[in-house]
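Exam prep: given the inputs below (a chain plus zinc ion), describe the expected output before reading on.
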Amino acid sequence: MKQQLLKEDDVIREMKKALAETLRIDEDTIQADSSLINDLGAESLDFLDVVYQMEQTFGIKMARHQVLEHVEELFGEDTAVDPDSGELTPGAVALLKLRFGEESVEIPEDMDMDDVPTLVTVRSMSRAVLDILDTLPSACEACGATDWKRDDNKIACSACDAPGTFENGDDLTRAWLTKAQEEHKLF
Ligand SMILES: [Zn+2]
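Solution:
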């Protein structure tokens, strides 16, 4: 269900804190629309670090694989990347536009798979966190109560204090992809 306890601003604030610490940069230099790689200089290991910090902060499991890695698993070999040119397929580019389009980032038609992580911004990563938080069940799995509270940055049951349970990021990505494919027939 769409939870109301943590908002986009809360997640962006924690994301900025984690990035400032990981990248040893001033928090004030980080904007919601900053690309982690292009604007903040993050490398692969920094991603893992920030993902881990977000998981600890909010009590969630984020995706380990980026969206296009799931595409070939779900829709078949060579659906995301053209094996001859090494470029993304038109379906993959259209998919990235769906996923990142509202970020006003430029997605070139001849984008390379390796460049996809440059699309990740503070805001898009925060949305991924929120999407997971929004899978909070209406009732606590431990006691059945239907009232949640916010304890620091974690969601917990008001009745028994059990932590909220959420779907994990990779499952959520696959569900999103299946729905996107049904609606847009990209592959
Ligand atoms: Zn409970």
